[in-house]
Amino acid sequence: MGLDMYLTAKRYISKYKSEDKAIATELAKAIGVTDKQIRCIEVDAMYWRKANAIHGWFVKNVQDGEDDCGTYEVPISKLVDLYDTLISVLRDKNVELLPPTGGFFFGEYDTSEGSYFWEYVKDTKDDLEKLLADKDFCDNFEYYYRASW
Fold first, then answer.
1. Most CB within 10 Å of its CB: which of 17, 53, 73, 131?
2. Contact 2/105 with Cβ under 8 angstroms?
3. 77 within some domain
């Protein structure tokens, strides 16, 4: 029990694009279905457990303050904003830019040096850096954030 957070990447497969048809054909072979049954590819791009400050950022900046375990589309521009925030937090050690968020079994609220807070910030920054550097992943996928507790 506790805060689980997912950033999902979804790519819709078009039967009219040759690249998509090739992807659908290969995937269909691998899982034993026809290529016509493949409509989208969905993967977990990122996952966090009890990274409540990161969750709070999504609630504020993507979910319009609604913390309701819903699924919300995240434009690439918002992922860039989160990345920039993480860079600033790491550079300036300013936790006010990414304050811990309280909730039912949301984890610790400690932001002192050596706490999990800094590990989450650094790991999220590193993961976003890789994701944002992959032009194909950015251009061909839609992103969705969902948290559950």
1. 53
2. yes
3. yes
The β-bridge partners of 10 are: 42, 142
pLDDT for 13 equals 92
> Percentage of the chain with pLDDT > 90?
79
DSSP codes, 9-23:
EEEEPPTT-HHHHHH
pTM, two decimals, is: 0.90
The mean predicted confidence, pLDDT, of the chain is 93
Taking CB atoms within 8 Å and a gap of at least 24, the contacts of 59-65 are 59/101, 62/145, 63/145
In the chain, what is the straight-line distance between the N-terminal and C-terminal CA atoms, in Å?
6
* Rg, the chain, Cα only: 17
| 52 falls within a domain | yes
Can you tell me the distance from the alpha carbon of 131 to that of 128, in angstroms, rounded to the nearest whole number? Answer: 5
Structural domain count of the chain: 1
8 Å CB contact between 100 and 117: yes
Q: Is 93 exposed, middle or buried (0-12, 13-18, 19+ CB in 10 A)?
A: exposed
Write phi, then psi, for 100 (nearest 5 degrees).
Answer: -60, 150
Domain coverage including residue 142: 4-8+45-148
